[in-house]
Amino acid sequence: MRSKPFIILSAVGVMVVAMASGAMPSPDKRLTGKKADTTQTDSSRVKGLQADDAATDTTDMDSLQLAVYHHNKAVDDSLRLDSINRKKKNGIDAPVTYQADDSLVYMASSNTAHLYGSAEVKYENMDLKSDKIKLSLDSSLVHATGSKDTTAKDGIKGKPVFVMGQDTYDTDTMSFNFKTKKGFIKHVYTQQEDGFLTSEQSKRNDNGEIYLAHGRYTTCDAPHPDFYIALSRAKVRPGKDVVFGPAYLVVADVPLPFAIPYGFFPFTKSYSSGFIMPTYGDENSRGFYLRDGGYYFAMSDKWDLKLLGEIYTKGSWGFSAASNYRKRYKYSGSFLFSYQDTKTGDKGMPDFSEQKSFKLQWSHRQDAKANPFSSLSASVNFASSKYERNNLTSMYNPQSLTQSTRTSSVSWSTTFSSIGLSLSSSANLSQNMRDSSIAMTLPDLNINISRFYPFRRKHQVGDEKWYEKISMSYTGQLSNSINTKEDKLMHSNLIKDWKNGMQHNIPISGNFTLFNYINISPSFNFTDRMYSSKVTRSWDQARQEEVRDTTYGFHNVYNWNLSLSANTKLYLFAVPNRKIFGDKIQAIRNVITPQISFSYAPDFGASRYGYYQTYQKTDADGNVSLVEYSPYSDQLYSVPGKGKTGSISMDLSNNLEMKIKSDEDSTGFKKISLIDELGASMSYNMAASYHKWSDLSMRLRLKWWKNYTFNMNAVFATYAYDLDENGKPYVGNHTEWGRGRFGRFQGMSQNISYTLTPEKIAKLFGGGSDEDKDNKNKDNNDDDEGIDTDINSNVDDEMIKAQNGAKKKSGGGKASTDDDGYMRFSMPWSITFGYGITMRENTSGKFNYKSMRYPYSFSQTLNMSGNLRISDGWNISFSSGYDFDNHKISMTTASLQRDLHCFNMSCSVVLAPYTSYNFTFRCNAATLTDALKYDKRSGYSNAVQWY
């Protein structure tokens, strides 16, 4: 700011008059005295007057001097009192600072200052900038306008910009009073959260509230908005809400016949409650509906509650309650309960039906910092079998609609590290959605004692003894479970319908070294089962049926087995011929790991154990047979198996690696895995009467690629087919090896998936630039607008990703160019292929008597999903597959998304196995997304017929 001569001369004049008044009396009304400091308090001014009076001695003054003194004192007192009253009247509590880049003109007659050129006035948290500002020092009134300039936008430059706190107001003309804090604004433009407000005339009161006339509200950030809500009048409370009177919608400058007499938009940044606008639509079977409308309760910063309801014109209704809770460093979770009463057809008619269904979801996670020794977690997803069929949202989520099994679990665990004891308890539920059967375990208590060495010395001296290597542990399990239908669960009997029991497992093992190369590992395992009931069976000859008699009491069932294993490692090295392979290959290493083990278990089917019993059965023809059964076969932990076991198991594993020279490694060498594992295993049961040899199992694992590991398992049958007296094949007691053939191939399975993108294609052909990588990382770092809670599974993840993919990412509509100046072509896409094949022996096929083999059957599946972004704002995604067994297309879905700047349009269709569609058009802004929307969808009962 440049110095102003007028101000300097005025200041010099004041100083000269003040100095002259101290030397001789002046004829002015106020003869002497200093200007009172307006920033002091009233009491300080009074004390200053008293101090001046005490310091002045009037005894030496003559009559003229005494008269001048009393005159000056009266004038000084009146001036100071006027200053005090003027401060109280103005109410300005802080200095008002102002500046201008061009010039500042002070009019002494009117006590006003005119600021030109990037002028600025500041007062407390208020800041006013404009090209021209008129400041009245007496009335504290500020008037700001812009200046005419043909080169500026709209022909005016330096329009007033008023900033108060975090709110900014762009205007054409503004008048503001610092004393009353009221203002008048013409053509104001301000942003409130996600919305933008404009008006022709506005008034601001002392509370900061703004009254608008002929205003507009929009969430479009374009200078010329795509749409807006025309407000005849409105009241704005910055940071809180805007309440408006009659309003109507305008799209592309065309007024639409959609008007409302009253409304409001919340702007609050704080956690607050509010209404949730419902979704409207129609369905053939249930009629017109209003759904997903209700109220949101902001209970506290730690938890909330959302209540939603739905109603149909044909009598169906439903409600849901959802809650999220979180306590920092303690726990977090979510809860959902939904109930539906679905009515189809006309009441009193044969086609009328009513179905009541519900859904319960609960997710709980405990922070690891809360308690390192105890944890509680829950993942509950339970729904009645008819719920997904009656829920409109599930129609467009194939994963939810075709889900056949739901699982739920609630688990708790604690650890006593000082003694190595851990306790865990869980409640598990498995639900079959096809036949409404459920399997529940409540509770499932587990007790574990970690491995300890009972014979090890606390203070070891010298070498470790062999018996000090013996270790043991303990595992206990207590369970209570039931298998029933969902409608019979609440009516079940805890004693008769539920199964309960306890199992103990005590393994004892050791690890020793023989001849420094062979590892010997003996082990003994003891298992004990405790049941509260057993079932005795008998035959009712009169009714020709089996009779079961359940007796309750304490029943103990145990078994044990022992085993002994030995293994070692053999290392073979080979150096290739330098003349043939050169010096690139340094060495080839082959690691062979043979292992042999022996296991033994007695025959617990012997009568002395009492685990198996028999009864005599006489059929209607008088045929007598002996039926063997176990009273504990239906218990939780079953019963020990019959038959003596004495088997020898053999396993052989190979690993082949090659060491080559490499400049990429700091050591100068690099290891390459040729065969990560090639293994085979087989066993021989000495106690078996026939089929003593087991099948040969082989495995292969290759790690030739960085991000892919090839795994394949195969089984070869040991025993060959023989023909019975009727010429039908059966597995005999002769081995394939004995007949000079390798084991009969039983089958294999393999799944392969691959995702193809333009970047991978460019990389395969030596292309790809760093810019593509940067764009990919940028896309990965974009914020995802996911769902607000993860407890509801009725959301298609692919559709959500596709919707986010349709958002415009270009900056300001500027097209990027390549090095040659041409517009860069970019159409991001990705296709994922998944192929699975299973080969197995088809025993239901025609037997080949020449090769003594059954034919092989192949089961193949092909899945494909993709995503294509055809342009900025357009995105297409799809998923499909083909079932080779049924020769049909599997679940096929497709979606199209379009980002329309302020709005988002999406359309998703299900093409197979049923047909349906869902069309949505809604505003992007969170404030209006529930108000400005249009949904059209089809239901399962009124599927679309495609032609």
Can you describe this structure?
The protein is mainly β. 10% of the residues lie in helices and 51% in strands. It contains nine helices and 53 strands. The protein has a 31-stranded antiparallel β-sheet that branches. The longest helix is centred in the N-terminal third of the chain and has 28 residues, at 63-90.
Q: What's a quick, concise take on this entry?
A:
10% of the residues lie in helices and 51% in strands.
Distinctive features:
single chain, 947 residues, mainly beta, 6-stranded antiparallel barrel, 9 helices, 53 strands, elongated, disordered N terminus
Helix content: 10-25%
Number of strands: 53
- How many DSSP H or I helices? 9
The description of the largest β-sheet is: 31 strands, antiparallel
Query: Roughly how many Å is the radius of gyration?
Result: 44 Å
SS-based structural class?
Answer: mainly beta
Low-confidence segments, given as residue ranges, are 1-54, 776-800
- Output mean pLDDT: 80
Bulk shape: elongated
Percentage beta strand: over 45%
The separation of the N and C termini measures: 77 Å
